[in-house]
From TrEMBL:
UniProt cross-references to InterPro entries, sorted A to Z: Glu_permease_IIB, PTrfase_EIIB_Cys, PTS_EIIC, PTS_EIIC_1, PTS_IIB_1, PTS_Sugar-Specific_Components
Keyword Transferase set for record: yes
The protein, known as: PTS system, glucose-like IIB component
Native source species: Enterococcus pallens ATCC BAA-351
UniProt subcellular location: Cell membrane
Transmembrane segments: 105-127, 147-166, 173-192, 212-230, 251-274, 280-305, 317-335, 355-374, 386-406, 426-451
MF terms in GO: kinase activity; protein-N(PI)-phosphohistidine-sugar phosphotransferase activity; protein-phosphocysteine-trehalose phosphotransferase system transporter activity
Residue ranges of every copy of the PTS EIIB type-1 domain listed in the record: 8-90
Entry coiled-coil feature ranges: none
Amino acid sequence: MKKNIDLEAFADHIIASLGGKENISFFTHCLTRLRFNVKDRSAVDEQSIEMEDNVVGSKWAGGQFQVIVGQNVIEAYDCIAKKIDPNTSNVNTVSGTKKSFSFAVVFDAFAGCFTPLLPLLIAAGMIRTMVLIAIQLGILSTTDGTYLTLNTISDAGFYFLPVFVGATSARKFGANMGLGMLVGAMLIHPQFVESLSSGELSLFNLPIYNATYSYTVFPTIMTVFIMSKVEKIISTRSPLLIRSVLEPVGTMLIMIPLTLFLIGPFGTFLGNYVTDGIIFLYQTLSFFGVAILAAVWPLLVLTGMHSAIVPYQMQSLAVLGYEPIALTAIIISNFNQGAASIAVAVKTKNLNLKSSAISCAATAVVAGITEPAMFGINLRYKKPMIAAMSGSFIAAGIAGLFKVYAFSYVGSAGIFGLPVFLSDNVMNLICMLISCLLGMLITFLLTLFLYRNSTIG
């Protein structure tokens, strides 16, 4: 999106093209996209939105319409939000329609729960990254007060994930946000954790399963989803005079035993099984699994389903202490999207395309935001995308052979994400760097060979 634009006109155009604000049932954004759930899909004028100069592209994914606008997405979101009733963006129930169960719907649910938390994860992850660098360079020691303070702050972003996810899940599923946070908070309360680990905790004389809920996300998301249904039933059947008390109290009295005896343990098992499943695939396919994920990663980004992998990353880091496949593949893929754009900039004679390609490449490599490069350059000309996916497959396969692991989460999967590969074994980071550079070189050369130069781009 251009810097000097008429945001008011842009917002009016988008809202009108979506069938008016009455047709919007849910509205949020991520790092580069405006995400809309609409009541009547046929009312959306996709061609009109695509023709908007400040729109990079648009996609339907999991019943959600995503408008890619680039790095000025926050300004666009704020302007559109002011024109939409504030309560509308907190509703996710589409009137008169019922979504059938599918993996796309599940991915959309996870993405909706995590997208608002990206700034939090980026901040916590980057602080942890800076602390790791300071430790490696000898600037800080593990006994230093500054280290202890910064490490605590960065750890808080991940330890209290159940509380944060409780809030965003409540917003996504249409439940009360306060109750959503309470569900997450009760699972990590210090006294609850201590009593649970000692086996002293029970409810109605029934023992509570000893599970670790800090750093986890699956139990809270599942609980809040079910809570949203319970809350709605109680609300519609409560006498108006006592609804304000009966709704929250009744909801929690039902959800507490459900969560502690059933949903919480099941969510923990699910999270562990997802992690174990991916690790099994990694151990079975070895480097091939990393290579495949890196190659198809742009397709996940294009469909808007890439946010759904965040829960696995959190779970893997919490359970294993490292993450062996996803972040390696993602960073390599992002770098190669940038390399393909750089090659287009080198080969094209079109000055506007050259300038755009350089800007898109810098965004992909430095910030790890690839939508401008993918929609604006590589997918548009097809051959650069093929080259990037090929380079990613080869480079990630090499990283997989070297068994490169990430030891922390970082929200920026670009240059600033590389320090998460720091460990006691410095070769882990060196192998990652070699893989990235080799992948970019392969992608660059393949793009130069495949992309046909022309004065019009």
